[in-house]
Amino acid sequence: TGKTKCGQLFFKHYCASSPPKKGVLIAPEQVVDEFKKPSGFLDWDSGGDGSIQPVIFEDLMHKRETLTQLINTLQNPDPNKYVLVIDEAHRLYSLFYESSHPHDLLEALFHTIRRTHKRLLLTGTPLYFGVPTLSILVNICQAPTDTDPLIPFNEREFRRRYYKTVMWKKFLYGWLTPILNLPVVKNGLILFHVAMVARYMYSMMGYM
Questions:
Q1: Least C-beta-crowded within 10 Å: which of 7, 106, 163, 192?
Q2: Residue 142 gets which letter from DSSP?
């Protein structure tokens, strides 16, 4: 797909050039297979400079040793030596909000990812799980020196900052329109208009 090709070219630029960076791909198992198929110019699993290590999303979600190993890999010797591609990146929501991993491990992963040299997040559904998904995707890509998140993780704070409520639209579309769309109301309005037209036509007959 286009996302896969984009990720391969990203790896090619940073891992197959000089000086080479190490790469890490986080993706579902079938996506990892797609990345490997036509990419003979990429070095998979050798462990040397320029090589790319795949991490299966499902393992990262359910196996603590996979999470710990990923953190240790990125921190050895320095996250800045790595470039990272995360395909189906909206699944980060499930990892950070729905997995049973300890909070301190997830926090360590979040900040370690932010310290990598470059990060490419690929997804066709950035709002798959709503606002929290977008917050993770944007904040994980921000500069590691930033202390405050670019987008609030809290949905209420997000709405306070970015939503603007127009009261007359809220009344019209949020309250009045659903009532007017009720079948009994809609049919009643149609009959009322038919009756008004009939009355008008009848009154016009008096002038003929």
A1: 163
A2: S
Q: What is the pLDDT of residue 77?
A: 75
Q: What would the DSSP string read from start to end of 96-135?
A: IIIS-S-HHHHHHHHHHHHTSSEEEEE-S-TTTT-HHHHH
Task: Indicate the helix (H) or strand (E) that contains 29.
Answer: helix 29-36
Dihedral Cα 54, 60, 64, 68, nearest 10 deg = 50
Amino acid at 206: G
pLDDT per position as a tens digit, 108-165: 999 999 999 999 999 988 888 877 788 888 899 888 888 888 888 887 888 788 776 6
* CA gap 154, 128 in Å, rounded: 16
23 forms bridges with which residues in the sheet? 52, 83
Is the distance from CB of 119 to CB of 113 less than 8 angstroms?
yes
For residues 101 and 136, the answer to whether their CB atoms sit within 8 Å is no
Is the bond leading into 178 cis (omega within 30 degrees of zero)?
no
